[in-house]
Backbone:
């Protein structure tokens, strides 16, 4: 990964942008792609689309720019902020975390309280629901807290990015800043190659609460093919139930998913692109629906051929998600190679 791309990835990962409040991360993304896109546009809700104008065949490469987090549900008399989920936040890892309340008047730092182990009874070790957890911002009463934050303010975990050994990287929001990074880098590569297809790089909003942004984008763009890049579970860690083991591991390359809604012609085209580019990929089997933007896009406009490409990720929906950057760069190679040959393969239709 070159220095410019790595700096972009780090900036994306360190920008806090919970679902429904994605503007800060979307701004980082738009500023980056503007230097090589033929056009960049956004819509009313903040979905961002950057375009390489090629031929008549249109390929969308889609990631989602939002992350899980919390919102301020209420403020009690003692100034503690009580929480609601924003997306699939994991209650087992939330207590004891540094957080940032992203208020209208600027960020407010706090911590999600955790009673010290010395003061807990044994039956208090059960993990509290998010609705029973609270943020301590260091004030003494409701008025002092209300002067700084408001009901509905988004809250993000305040962890940052760290290099592990080799090409491994850890931080929050790998889900799914890695996907929007891949979309941007694929567009950059497509522009450099001047590929014979129109390529849309897309950063959607509100994926974590129902793929709402993807529904808007799918309706607006109506491409010939959509490649949705999102994290997928690396099942190579200890203690995982055997029934959850997909065989996907860190460092084995991006995954190509086979199942609903993955279009069989796109799956075949990605496998062919992997062979052509000598790119390692991992096949991932799934028979039911996927919890990604592909689920929203493939039913738009009478059916948009869609497929999932996965970034293998450990510890998903925690502040310490782990990826291998070699899988990221291989994902860009894969999707760019596919886009480069898409004009010769379209239309993508199931043969009857």
Residues:
């Amino acid at each position: 990964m070159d220095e410019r791309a790595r700096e972009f990835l780090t900036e994306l990962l360190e920008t806090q942008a919970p679902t429904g409040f994605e503007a800060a991360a979307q701004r980082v993304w738009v500023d980056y792609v503007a230097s090589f896109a033929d056009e960049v546009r956004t819509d009313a809700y903040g979905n961002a689309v950057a375009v390489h104008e090629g031929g008549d065949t249109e390929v969308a490469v889609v990631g989602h720019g939002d992350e899980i987090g919390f919102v301020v549900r209420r403020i009690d008399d003692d100034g503690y902020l009580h929480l609601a989920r924003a997306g699939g936040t994991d209650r087992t890892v939330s207590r004891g975390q540094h957080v940032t309340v992203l208020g209208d008047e600027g960020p407010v730092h706090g911590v999600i309280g955790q009673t010290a182990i010395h003061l807990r009874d044994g039956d208090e070790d059960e993990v509290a629901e998010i609705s029973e957890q609270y943020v301590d911002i260091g004030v003494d009463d409701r008025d002092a807290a209300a002067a700084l934050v408001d009901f509905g303010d988004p809250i993000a975990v305040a962890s940052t990015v760290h290099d592990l050994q080799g090409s491994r990287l850890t931080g929050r929001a790998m889900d799914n800043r890695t996907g929007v990074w891949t979309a941007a880098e694929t567009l950059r590569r497509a522009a450099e190659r001047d590929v014979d297809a129109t390529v849309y790089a897309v950063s959607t909003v509100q994926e974590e609460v129902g793929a709402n942004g993807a529904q808007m984008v799918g309706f607006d763009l109506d491409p010939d093919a959509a490649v949705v890049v999102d994290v997928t579970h690396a099942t190579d860690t200890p203690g995982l139930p055997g029934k959850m083991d997909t065989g996907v591991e860190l460092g084995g390359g991006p995954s190509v998913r086979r199942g609903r809604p993955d279009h069989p012609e796109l799956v075949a085209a990605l496998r062919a692109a992997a062979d052509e580019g000598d790119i390692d990929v991992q096949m991932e089997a799934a028979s039911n629906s996927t919890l990604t933007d592909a689920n929203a896009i493939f039913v738009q406009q009478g059916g948009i051929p869609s497929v999932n490409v996965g970034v293998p990720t450990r510890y998903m929906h925690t502040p310490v998600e782990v990826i291998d950057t070699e899988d990221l760069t291989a994902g860009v190679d894969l999707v760019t190679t596919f886009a480069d040959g898409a004009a010769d393969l379209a239309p993508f239709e199931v043969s009857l």
Observations:
- The chain has a mean pLDDT of 95.
- The domain at 3-67+172-345 is CATH 3.40.630.10 (Aminopeptidase).
- The two ends are 42 Å apart (CA to CA).
- The CA atoms of residues 10 and 173 lie 11 Å apart.
